[in-house]
Every structure is written in C-alpha cells, then in structure tokens.
C-alpha cells in the first residue's frame, strides 16, 4: 500500500505570493521518520507539509498532484532511490520542485550523487528542527548555496577530478567575472551579497549566474558548484566566506 498522504486540493489553494507558505513533500521509507518530520515541520512558521511518500517511485506522481515547492528526499530507499527520483523530477517536469536530501551521514557518497543529479542541498536527519525548517526556506528562496562548508568538505572526499573539463563544455569559456561569480556562489553568497562584493548591479549578477549555469550545463546554482568541484574548475580548499547563511 502506498504511504502517500492526501494534501489540500490544489484547485482550492490560494495563488502563490510572498506570504504563501513553502509547501513540502516528505519522502522517506521509514514511517516513524516521515510522521516525525511531518509533525515537526507542520508547526514551523511558513511551512506546510502537503504529503508523504515511502519510496522514490511515488515522488513524481505526487509532485504532479500537489505541486510542492520543496521535496525533502531520503536517499536510500528500497525500490527507487532518491538520486533516481531527483533525476526523474528534473527530466519530466519543466518546473521541478527544489530537492533537499536528508541523510544519516553527511559524507555519504549517495549525497554527492544526489547533488550531481540536481538536488539543491542536504541536511542530516538529526539536525535540529529549526535548522531543517530554515534550510527548506532558504532552498525555496533559491539564490544561495545551502551549507557551503559541508558541500566543500564533501567535494574534498571525492576522487581528484581532471583539470577544468566540463562534460563537453570548455571551462575556459567562463569569463573572469563569471569565474568570480562562481567562486562567490560556492561560498554561499546570495545574488545581493555577490553584487555588493563585486560592486555591480543585481541584474548583472543574475546575468553572470545564468551564464555560469548555462556554460556548466547545470540546473541550479548548487548543481553548478558541485559540477565545478567535480570537474576541477573549483578546488575544495580553505574556508568559505563568513557572508554565507548561518543557523
């Protein structure tokens, strides 16, 4: 039997606006984990859990039905894992939801593969609920990298990449300003913070970010940073800027 839970009828939902809650689909094969996350997230300001799924195979149809802004996705599931489910969302939908991977171990190789598949970030299952809620809000906002220090540490654990070769796209095609934008994205800075750091207009930063995503064949800014680490465009050394979000 499916573990999918009905949410509100999308036809009755109010139009999305700045005040609308961030809708969330919880995906985990453990019933107690799902129930706990649903209960805890449901009382967090600005969040609304619209449904649950016990396996990755349920994710795509439920996303089509309830249109959540964020999917909180377990990675290891018995039938269809979270990596494949994330790939399906990105290949089958023109406007897929954001995906946050929930994991037991931060250095799980599956997490890196999920980020390469297009997930926007990851967080440990034992994280404080306030931290998880804030992570979901930030991912829904979409203009900064979630936990850049953790992404960099995970990148450092991967095999050494070939130098500056991006899957058929020349890394050298990045301009100096685009590379600078990419480095600041990797530190977790938002578009507004990047604009301030580079002393340019916000619209210019948005253009640079769009160009970076296109040249790295990335679906989102997290994916771009992960691809850059994976292919040697960025090297995961040193500490990130203090400008990134703190929890």
From TrEMBL:
One of its GO terms (molecular function) is DNA binding. The modification 4-aspartylphosphate is found at residue 74. Gene3D superfamilies: 3.40.50.2300. PROSITE patterns: HTH_LUXR_1, HTH_LUXR_2, RESPONSE_REGULATORY. InterPro entries: CheY-like_superfamily, NreC/VraR/RcsB-like_REC, Sig_transdc_resp-reg_C-effctor, Sig_transdc_resp-reg_receiver, Tscrpt_reg_LuxR_C, WalR-like. Keywords: DNA-binding, Phosphoprotein, Plasmid, Transcription, Transcription regulation. SMART domains: HTH_LUXR, REC. Residues 167-232 form the HTH luxR-type domain. Residues 23-140 form the Response regulatory domain. This is DNA-binding response regulator.
């Amino acid at each position: 039997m499916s573990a999918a839970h009905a949410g509100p009828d999308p036809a009755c939902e109010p139009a999305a606006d700045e005040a609308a809650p961030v809708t969330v689909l919880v995906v985990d094969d453990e019933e107690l984990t799902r129930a706990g996350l649903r209960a805890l997230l449901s009382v967090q300001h600005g969040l609304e859990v619209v449904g649950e799924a016990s396996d990755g195979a349920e994710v795509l149809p439920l996303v089509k039905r309830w249109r959540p802004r964020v999917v909180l996705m377990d990675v290891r599931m018995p039938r269809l894992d979270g990596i494949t489910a994330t790939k399906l969302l990105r290949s089958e939908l023109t406007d897929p939801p954001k995906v946050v991977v929930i994991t037991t171990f931060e250095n799980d190789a599956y997490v890196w593969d999920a980020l390469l598949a297009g997930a926007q970030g990851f967080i440990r299952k034992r994280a404080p609920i306030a931290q998880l809620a804030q992570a979901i809000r930030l991912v829904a906002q979409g203009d900064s990298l979630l936990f850049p220090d953790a992404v960099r540490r995970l990148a450092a654990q991967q095999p050494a990449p070939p130098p500056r070769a991006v899957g058929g796209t020349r890394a050298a095609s990045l301009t100096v300003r685009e590379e600078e934008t990419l480095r600041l994205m990797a530190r977790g800075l938002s578009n507004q913070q990047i604009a301030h750091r580079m002393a340019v207009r916000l619209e210019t930063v948005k253009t640079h970010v769009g160009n970076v995503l296109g040249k790295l064949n990335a679906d989102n800014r997290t994916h771009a940073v992960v691809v850059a680490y994976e292919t040697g465009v960025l090297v995961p050394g040193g500490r990130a800027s203090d400008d990134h979000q703190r929890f």
